[in-house]
Amino acid sequence: EIVLTQSPATLSLSPGERATLSCRASQSVSSHLAWYQQKPGQAPRLLIYDASNRATGISARFSGSGSGTDFTLTISSLEPEDFAVYYCQQRSNWPLLFTFGPGTKVDIK
Amino acid sequence: EVQLVESGGGLIQPGGSLRLSCAASGFTVSSNYMSWVRQAPGKGLEWVSVIYSDGAIYYADSVKGRFTISRDNSKNTLYLQMNSLRAEDTAVYYCARGPMIVVGYYFDYWGQGTLVTVSS
Question: How much is the pLDDT for B68?
């Protein structure tokens, strides 16, 4: 079973600052990693798939990078609506199961 | 426009049963893989189950033997039958759609969620 760890648990930043979020897999997932944003009381929203591809309608200030075991989600300049929790996610094949990381909360400094 | 609308949540006693529904529109549930993902209060996301377009089904160990995922193609609806419910099953349950790709591992559309509370 592949385990995902995210760091930091909380990131306190000001609007306009750059946010760098990390996701590490316990074994290689190639580029099969996705990122989601979740705001309080809302469902998760897909931001990035295949490590670096932005989902439909996602702002260019969100970018993803990495492959294998180490991945990064970068928000180039935080907007007020970007303060939320971010999860990474992958699927392992044996056993087949989907795994989410524990999340990184980006809050206002 | 793709939409997913969950229903069926509520307060249920430990040991009880509940069936969640996820009505889909804008696409055909049998053409995509569909999952249930839950989130306990104040906690992170936990995958529960998936059904693929070919009918293959998988469950998380935490619900195996107690929960059953299914779909009704004529109603374009996904279901989750939950039996032998425990307090730790208390969560918001989301249905989520996977895209029509060969190596599918992520979810591109999510419903708004339905709250299940297991308590006496």
Answer: 98
Say how far apart CA A63 and CA A48 lie, in whole Å. 7
Q: Give the largest CA-CA distance in chain A.
A: 42
Average pLDDT over residues A81-89: 98
Question: In DSSP terms, which residues pair with A45 in a beta bridge?
Answer: A37
Chain B contact present for A98, CB below 8 A: yes
Is A100 within 8 Å of B44 when comparing Cβ atoms? Answer: yes
Short-list A50, A59, A54, CA closest to A82: A59
A68 close contact with B: CB closer than 8 A = no
Beta-strand pair B114-118/B10-12: parallel
Angstrom distances, CA of residue A19 to CA of A25, A37, A61, A83, B6 = 20, 13, 10, 10, 33
Q: How far apart are CA B90 and CA B120, in angstroms?
A: 12
Three-class DSSP category at B77: strand
pLDDT given at position B73: 96
pLDDT at B66: 98
At residue B101, the pLDDT reads 79
Q: Is the pLDDT of residue B103 over 90?
A: no
